[in-house]
Amino acid sequence: MESHFLLKIPNRAGAEIVYGAEECYRHSIELLEELGFLKGVLPLQDLEECGRVRETGFVWMKQKAPYEHFFVGTNTRVSYATEVTAYVDKFKMKKMTGLKSKLVFLWVPVTEMSIQDPSSNKIYFNTPMGIGKSFPITAFMTDEEKQQKYLEQKTEE
Predict the structure, then answer these.
(1) Burial of 48 (0-12, 13-18, 19+ CB in 10 A)
(2) 86, 95 contact by CB (below 8 A)
């Protein structure tokens, strides 16, 4: 059962909104793939609502509770608030809210995520202070994406 409707709230006027864990998961994966990001870059849990305003590029994802995730490939702990928002474009999420990365003893907001050159296989993260860091894209692959890449390499051999 699909739950869609249009909403009239500032920033969210004319939004496409979906509700429920399965619909939101499907919607978020489709969005990440459309933007050129890997599925594992936003590992949100228990999604309840996802929305997108195509005209402005504004998106949001609401989950039941804040969630922390440890990315083994980058040795980084990331915190996701109950609501994560961004303005999106191909290979870029900017003006992000609800996302923080732990550096030593400090939680630092992440406000931008981008893939500047897809052939470089790097993903860049930036903070409001202008500090940024890049990681290999493979660090954010899901098990399914790793398996697919492995199979593609095998067929090329």
Answers:
(1) middle
(2) yes
For residue 107, the surrounding DSSP H or E stretch is: strand 106-109
Q: Which of 83, 77, 78, 115 is nearest to 96 (CA)?
A: 83
Contact 76, 70 (CB under 8 A): yes
Q: What's this model's pTM, rounded to 2 decimal places?
A: 0.83
Would you give per-residue pLDDT tens digits along the chain (157 residues)? 444 544 445 577 788 999 999 999 999 999 999 999 988 999 988 999 999 999 999 999 999 999 999 999 899 999 999 999 999 999 999 999 999 999 888 999 999 999 998 888 899 999 999 889 999 988 898 888 777 765 566 566 6
Distance in angstroms (rounded) separating the CA atoms of residues 101 and 86: 16
Measure the CA–CA gap between 1 and 62, rounded to whole angstroms.
Answer: 19
CA distances from 110 to 19, 87, 143 (A): 26, 13, 25
Q: Which is nearest to 97 in space by CA: 64, 136, 66?
A: 66
Task: Say which residue the tokens 């290979």 belong to.
Answer: 91
CA–CA separation, 45 vs 120, rounded Å?
29
